Amino acid sequence: ITPITLPLPLHMGSVNCYLIQTAAGYFLIDTGGANARRALHRELVRAGCTPGSLKLILLTHGDFDHTGNVAYLRATFGAEVAMHRSDKDMAERGDMFANRKQPNILIRTLVPLFTGFGKSKRFTPDLFLEDGTDLSPYGLEATVLNLPGHSLGSLGILTAGGAFFCGDLLENTAGPQGDVPALGSIMDDPTAARASLARLAHLQTTQVQPVTVYPGHGAPFTAEALQHIHAAAGATPT
C-alpha cells in the first residue's frame, strides 16, 4: 500500500489516495483533485504504476477532491472506474449536491467555482459497487462496505489483510495533543454516519476485522482507535 497525499485547492488542506499493488496489477483508491494532477501522475509512475498496469480505480464517494482525476486517469492509464450507484450523478453532472441535502443558493453558486469540476472532468463509472461486493474477481482480495453519512453512496474497502479504506467517514486531524482520529467533520446525514460507524464493530459481510484505517484526510491509524471514536460519536453498535 502506497499512500499518496495531495494538496487541495486554495490551501484548504490535503486529501489521500492509496495505491495498492497485487499480483494482478495496481488498484487506486480515490484520485485527488484536478489541481494536483501532475503530482498524482508522478507518484503513480514513481511507485511503478504505468499505463496499462492500473487495473481499477475505486472511489469511496463522488466529491471533487476524490474524483477530480478520474477522467484523466482512465484515458491515460486505461483503468476501469468503480463507485456506488448512489453517487454516480455527482460524477456525471459534476454536482457535489446531487444526492445530498440542498444548501442555500449562495453555497450552490460558490462551490462549483472553487471545485473546478467542469465537463472535462466528469465521467460515467464503468462498474457499480454494492455493499458486500467481492473484489477478488478483479484481482484485489477485498470487500466493499456501503457506509452512508458523508454521502449516500460512500464506500469503505476492507482488504483480506485488514487494511480499511474509509473515505471521509473517518478522519485523522492534527490537534494540540497530536493526531486525533474521529468521525468525519462534514456529514450530510449525521444519523446515517453514526450508524455506519457503529456497523464497523459488527461486520457481517466478512470475518476480517480492520487492523489499520486509511482515511481520506489525515494519517493512517490503528483500528484500536475505533472504539474511542464510537464512544465520542455516541455510536452504539447494533
What does this structure look like?
The protein is α/β, with parallel strands linked by helices. It is 24% helix and 28% strand. It contains seven helices and 13 strands. The strands form three sheets. Strands 1-2-3-4-5-6 form a six-stranded mixed beta sheet, covered by helices on one side. The protein is globular and about 45 Å long. The two termini are 31 Å apart. The mean pLDDT is 90.
Q: Strand order of the main beta sheet, please?
A: 1-2-3-4-5-6
Percentage of residues in helical conformation: 10-25%
According to DSSP, the number of beta strands is: 13
Biggest pleated sheet: 6 strands, mixed
Taken in chain order, the helices and strands follow as EEEHEHHEHHEEEEEEHEEH
Secondary structure class reads: alpha/beta
| Gyration radius, rounded | 17 Å
End-to-end distance = 31 Å
How do the strands and helices of this protein lay out in sequence?
Blueprint: E1 2-7, E2 14-22, E3 25-29, H1 37-46, E4 54-58, H2 64-67, H3 70-77, E5 80-84, H4 88-93, H5 105-115, E6 127-129, E7 142-146, E8 155-159, E9 163-167, E10 170-175, E11 178-183, H6 190-199, E12 212-215, E13 221-222, H7 225-233
Parallel strand pairs: 3-4, 4-5, 5-6, 9-12
Antiparallel strand pairs: 1-2, 2-3, 7-8, 8-9, 10-11, 12-13
List descriptors.
single chain, globular, 24% helix, 5-stranded mixed sheet, 6-stranded mixed sheet, 7 helices, alpha/beta, 28% strand, 238 residues
Please provide a brief summary of the model.
This protein has 238 residues and is an alpha/beta fold.
